[in-house]
Amino acid sequence: MTSRLNDARILMYSHDTFGLGHLRRCRTIAHALVEDYRGLNVLIISGATIAGAFDYRARVDFVKIPSIIKLRNGEYTSLDRHIDLQDTLKMRRSIIRHTAESFQPDIFIVDKEPMGLRGEIEETLAYLKSQGTRLVIGLRDVMDAPQLLDAEWQRNDVMNKIAKFYDNVWVYGSPDFHDPLEGLDVPQVVRNRMEFVGFLQRQQTQSETSNVRPKEDYILVTTGGGGDGSELIDDVINAYAYDKTLTHKAFVVLGPYMPAEQRERLLNKAAPIPHLEIIQFDNRMEDLVAGAKAVVSMGGYNTVCEIFSFDKPALIVPRVVPREEQLIRASRAKELGLLDMLLPEEAENPQHMAEALKALPHRQPPSANSQNLQLDGLQNISRRIAEWLHPEDINAAKATG
What we know:
The protein is 37% helix and 16% strand. With 401 residues, the protein is of the alpha/beta class.
């Protein structure tokens, strides 16, 4: 292993079968690390179909593995329907293993799926462990309802494999907010390796390219990747159509994974309503959240981090199937007074939705109730990385100015 931050290598894995959350989280961490340490190199392995649509800082790069998409029923399929799923998984496993062998990372950070999609990184974990690489699994603040996560992990003996392979278990959240392994039988050895690093604070991108955003105040409506976001957009459009006194500008981002026929239908439906503006995708969502008066979303991890980071009043309409992650996160945040929430069946009522949208710009921001909300995840990760790689190099390696 290298002992200097000035030439250290970090490999990250993001399975990316549905939405953009995993890649965006990895990219956020990678950018913070190369900003802190000028010799550090980060390589992200990603299955996201649009991994190349994002900007990457110097010394952050990505390796694209063949895409597999998760259908709404939870099943997987190859993005290229002409290639068998098993053949695609075999290619992915091979690319991941060869990338690890060539890159020879000091640290391997895996996002959310401890053994990867269908166990695809287990062989690579075993190889890197034999090379002395430090292995880290990073978990969201909320994974899923305990009974669902437990059933999934029991099937594949995941908890024992975490104990076998991983040196550290990071939780990208605060213990005061939620414990992602609550309700599971967690071995003491895994608990001992767990660290709640804090939520991952976001910053504006400071991009020179200006966003295509409204000049006047706007409520941002975002569904993340958009693969399952059409219902929320429908609810917003229906509320505006129902209540003509709802005149606050709504800027709607559909998401790059929204199916084309849904996108066309929503664009046509919204066309007669002057207060709605719709775009498909913007790769600088941080800037759109920062510029918004308030945010309407489904409550994915990254969007909630942005809501907290830029201190925006928010209305969450969470997805409730096949995972309960967004429902648990939104319910907890509402309980703490950080944001408002409507269940999907409540948001379907145009009168309820219109009332919630009208009240939204006037509600208190998260900071009004967030005494213990820890947004220091990136700083804590940066400090840990430095401690592991070479403590005496920390001050020397910190980028100046």
